[in-house]
Each structure stands twice: as C-alpha cells, then as structure tokens.
Amino acid sequence: MISRIDLRGDAFPVNGIDRDLLPRAELDVEAALEKVRPICDDVHHRGTAALIDYAERFDGVKIDRVRVPAEAITKALEELDPAVRAALEESIRRARLVHREQRRTDTTVQVVPGGTVTERWVPVRRVGLYVPGGRSVYPSSVVMNVVPAQEAGVGSMAVASPPQADFGGLPHPTILAACALLGVDEVYAAGGAQAVAMFAYGTDECPRADMVTGPGNIWVAAAKRLLKGRIGIDAEAGPTEIAVLADATADPAHVAADLISQAEHDPLAASVLVTDSEELANAVEKELAVQVAATKHVEDRILPALGGRQSGIVLVDGIEQGLEVVDAYAAEHLEIQTADAAAVAARVRNAGAIFVGAYSPVSLGDYAAGSNHVLPTGGCACHSSGLSVQSFLRGIHVVDYSREALADVAGHVVTLAEAEDLPAHGAAVKARFDWKVPQSK
C-alpha cells in the first residue's frame, strides 16, 4: 500500500539529503505550466465567456453568469445545518484570536536629528480568495482566506469556488454560507486555473485583483506561478502533504489515521512517515490496512495517494537524521510524534506548520486550532510561509529628512553616487545646495 525508503547505515548521504531521494509527486508545478497557459490566455482575452465555457468543460455545468447572486448567499446561510454553523462560528472565532495578534504597527526611527524613516504597513487594495470545491467542499478554506484578509484591513475581497452541477452551477451552499457568516457578498462560480486568471486580468463581472490567495490543486498552483507578477500570490499551495516524524513512542494507530486524513484529499496528496523505528513502521503499515478498509474515498483518492511515489515510509538511524530528512522535505504539515516532541519541534526549520505531540493532529489545524491551513507545498516551505495577516500587508518606507539632515550626509551620498558612476544621483543632492555640497561629518 505504501513504499519504503531505507536511509539507514551507509545509505544516508554524507553530504546531506538530496530532495530527489524523498517521496515527491511525478506531476510537479513546472510540468503543469504549459497546460494552464492557454486557459489563462483565453480568460485574458474572452473574460466571462471563457469562464462559462470552462465551467461546462471542466465542471460539467452550464451557467449563464459567473457572479453568484446575493440572494443565493443569503439563502445558503438560512438553510445551513445549525451544527455546521456553530462549528464554523467557532472556527472563525479562534482564527480571529490568532490572526488579530499578527497585526503590524507602524514604526518610526529617528536616524539623525531631523531625519526619520517610518515603516507603514498598508493592506493590499483588493484580493481574490480561492476556495477549492472539486472532490470535496471546503468552507474551512473560506475562513482561512477571509479572516486574515479582514484582520489586515483589506477593503475589497472576492471569493471564487468551482460551480457545482448538483447546485445549479453555484458553488457548494456551505461555502456560500461561510461567506455570508464572514460578511463576504462578492462570490464567483469559477474554479481552477481559470479562476486565478479571472482575478489576475479581471472580467466584465469581476474587477481585477492585486493578489490571489488560497489552496488548490496542481492547476491552481501552476496558474499562480504563471501569473505571478501580473498578480501577487501567497504561495503555491498545491496538493496537500503531511510528514510525520515519529519514534517508538508514537501510537501507530494515530500515525496511520493522520496519514490517511491527508490522503483522502486527492490522489496526488502526499503522506510521508519518517521514523527510526522499524517496529513502528511495521505497525503503521498494519494499521493502514485496517483503517483504510473502514473509511470512504478509498479507490479514487486514498489508495492512489498512499501508493503513489509521493508517499512513503522513510527509515533513518535516529531522530537527528529524521530532522535532516524533514527539513529537506519541507512539508506543508509536519507532525512531531516523538519523546520530548516540543524540543524536537523547536529544532525544525522548514515546515508550513508544525503539530506537536499526540494531541495536535493536522485535522485540528485544518479546522479549529486557530492557525491557518493555507500553507506552502511541494518543498516551498523552505522559503515561503503560510497565509497570515502579513500576507496581505505591504511595508512602505517613508523617508522624511530636513535640509540640515540632508546636508549632514550629502557628501557621503555624492561620494557613493560617483563610486557607482551615477553622477546624476549626486547632482540631485547638489542641486538642493546651489551645487555647494557641505562636507559630511
């Protein structure tokens, strides 16, 4: 059901782990770029008409407009199961508690008397928030996108989620209800790469956005990479992945359940166990067989995910080697199920989010820990962060110098300008002093 990679003994690389040694999906974002390019170009040139065509082609539904009517959003909330509403409201409450503390405050530094530099934190003007809706429904992703954007002070935001044939070409009603709970009334029935292109270029229905965020499949991630520059992105949050670093103290039933929990998302989902205990590895394999047989989505998602080259059990000689492996892998979700898990977790450098100990499963973070579940995948956690309030803010330096403060440093500015063979830079300073540049102190 799941493969093994044995890095014990002489098999462990002496010069560090090469990411190519580790489980990774065959279809990567780079390979998907050329397939999404014509889709994005088509949306650029035909706008709403292209989105309507792709809804029929990819989602199997005929629609005559892309923007969701306001009454459909209101109705979805009115008809929402009370238990689901209560769970969403608690998820929103916890997410606000965490994300509100991420707000930045402006800072002013007096560099010299009469010379200050202020860093102002300014939210992006408008954002497009992508919520997946293919194999599953993700109202939790509405929460994870909208809450940090609202806490950052974004003034204009729109949600896009794929149209559903079962719901008359609208996004899933639970997604619409989550939007209503959060006060978002601009929602579009658009999915995949075409939704990213809609936000990047704008259409007659949807004004273009400055940034697009949210998780998605490989095609959404590829569209983000393709259009980055035209539109800001959070990260390439593609098919989900979990890595579990565990030793002999871990409960194999917990580990197996957590590996399955991410495998049920998508056949390209990655589930990786890194352990120094062969006994644990054997026990987890037995648990996988038992638990998979008792769950849903087995043939179309879980078995292809666990059996794919992106998943596996990696055997190492100790937790030190295990840390090297998980840092090289840079998982979207990393669980630490070892003795003294908090101390081990504190040494991890590369992960989208870290879940410490037996009672912090990834599922908690997906819904109600208060953390954000929009996280970098595909190894991007070595350079990118998960979605946060900071994702929606830009730091702008405001430079305010008096004549005297400029005069004090003018000589240095002119000297450096001439050293770089940029005399006009120096001349811009000299012009303020009738070409007489005071000597710098």
Outline the secondary-structure elements:
Elements lengths: L3 E3 L22 H18 L1 H12 L10 H9 L3 H19 L6 E6 L2 E9 L2 E5 L8 H14 L3 E6 L11 H9 L5 E3 L2 H10 L9 E3 L4 H10 L4 E2 L7 E6 L5 H12 L6 E6 L2 H16 L4 H10 L4 E4 L3 H11 L1 E7 L3 H5 L5 E6 L5 H6 L25 E9 L1 H17 L3 H8 L11
Parallel strand pairs: 1-11, 4-5, 4-7, 5-6, 7-8, 9-10, 9-12, 10-11, 12-13
Antiparallel strand pairs: 2-3, 3-14
Helix pairs in contact: 1-2, 1-7, 1-8, 3-6, 4-5, 5-6, 7-8, 9-10, 9-11, 15-16
Q: Report the mean per-residue pLDDT as an integer.
A: 95
User: How much strand content do the residues show?
Assistant: 15-25%
Nearest-angstrom radius of gyration?
25 Å
Which stretches are low in confidence, meaning pLDDT under 50 for 5 or more residues running? none
Order of adjacent strands in the largest pleated sheet:
1-11-10-9-12-13
Category by helix and strand content: alpha/beta
Helix content: 40-55%
How can the largest sheet be summarized? Answer: 6 strands, parallel
Total strands: the figure is 14
Reading the helices and strands in chain order gives EHHHHEEEHEHEHEHEEHEHHEHEHEHEHH
C-alpha termini separation: 72 Å
What shape does the CA trace take?
Answer: globular
Number of helices: 16
Describe the structure.
This protein has a 6-stranded parallel beta sheet with strand order 1-11-10-9-12-13, with helices on both faces. It has a 5-stranded parallel beta sheet with strand order 6-5-4-7-8, sandwiched between helices. It has a 3-stranded antiparallel beta sheet with strand order 2-3-14. 42% of the residues lie in helices and 17% in strands. It is α/β, with parallel strands linked by helices and 441 residues long. It starts with a strand and ends in an 11-residue tail after the last helix. Helix 4 (82-100) runs parallel beside helix 5 and helix 9 packs across helix 10 (278-293). Helix 13 (341-345) links the parallel strand 12 and strand 13 (351-356).
